[in-house]
Design brief:
- Helices cover 49% and strands 26% of the residues.
- The chain has 288 residues and is α+β, with helices and mostly antiparallel strands.
- The protein folds into two domains: 2-52 and 263-287; 57-250, no CATH class.
- The strands form two sheets. Strands 1, 2, 3, 4, 5, 6, 7, 10, 11 and 12 form a ten-stranded mixed sheet that branches. Strands 8-9 form a two-stranded antiparallel sheet.
- Helix 2 (17-55) runs antiparallel to helix 9.
């Protein structure tokens, strides 16, 4: 019986080669779309994970709303002296804009200390990063991303040149390597200046503090986070005033979100494949 059915089907396929080809093509496209969407989702997930890991698995990020100015950095020095932290940097962020060839070019400006380069795993192609002397003396020096150097100094070496930020002249002392973009934006359109200078240029940012902390090892991240949370709870009026999270937590959230997105895309493609398959089956049954 099955042999007879197969023979009838085969004769129908041979007799209608174009129809058989189009049917096969529909199935191939449907299956390929599912595989492609799954691959794209997994690739995006892996890329996001690599970008986060590149910053460092021992990184801790602290965001604090310090309306009353009760948060001196001495608590971080004590934590560093205890051996739990390798380095830390407070960050004050702002923006500045330039007109390059008739188009606006936005640069993210961050005030940091001398340890920020280590904490964020920054690498330079030329020059140097901010030093302790630069920070202590609040010198008008700046380290810039490669896109800033390309846009503002296209025909000459940017090292030693002057860059104006919020009306203040800064001397370029370093150029970072290319890092691309991530969830924080274009990492190559950045500029780093001494922390106190940033506080002067962007005073409205002083009540919202961000700290990047490098734990001594990945194993001490959890202990360091507990100490930080305990201290902030003791000096701030509400737990809603601060957030403490690690790179591993960020990676976990990203993996969850990307997993949901991949599942959603695969589900949509699968539904399309099923609907298309039912249509193909219906045509085959009618014509066989």
């Amino acid at each position: 019986m099955f042999k007879e059915y197969f023979s009838i089907a085969w004769r129908s396929v041979v007799a209608h080669k174009i129809r058989a080809l189009l049917t096969t093509l529909g199935v191939v496209i449907g299956v390929s779309s599912v595989i492609l969407l799954l691959s794209l989702g997994n690739s995006a997930k892996a890329e996001a994970a690599n970008q986060i890991r590149a910053i460092g698995s021992n990184l801790i990020i602290v965001r604090v709303t310090d309306r009353n100015g009760v948060l001196p950095t001495i608590w971080l020095d004590e934590l560093k002296d205890s051996g739990k932290l390798a380095a830390y940097s407070e960050i004050i962020s702002g923006n500045t804009s330039y007109v390059v060839n008739g188009q606006n070019f936005d640069v993210s400006v961050s005030g940091v200390n001398q340890d920020y380069g280590f904490v964020s795993s920054l690498e330079l192609t030329k020059g140097r990063f901010l030093s302790q002397i630069d920070i202590d003396n609040n010198l008008p020096v700046v380290v810039i991303g490669p896109k800033v150097a390309e846009k503002l100094f296209p025909l000459k070496d940017a090292i030693g040149e002057t860059m104006v930020i919020q009306g203040v002249q800064f001397r370029v002392i370093g150029i970072l390597t290319e890092r691309g973009t991530n969830f924080n934006g274009d990492l190559d359109a950045t500029a780093y200046i001494p922390i106190d200078f940033a506080g002067t240029l962007y005073p409205y940012r002083l009540n919202s503090k961000t700290y990047y902390l490098a734990s001594e090892t990945e194993d001490t991240v959890a202990t360091s986070m507990r100490k930080i949370e305990s201290y902030l709870t003791s000096v701030l009026p509400s737990a809603n005033e601060f957030n403490v999270f690690s790179q591993s937590q960020i990676l976990g959230v990203m993996n969850t979100l990307m997993g949901l997105l991949t599942t959603l895309l695969a589900g949509i493609a699968s539904i399309s494949l099923i609907v298309g398959g039912i249509g193909i089956m219906n045509i085959m049954l009618v014509t066989v």
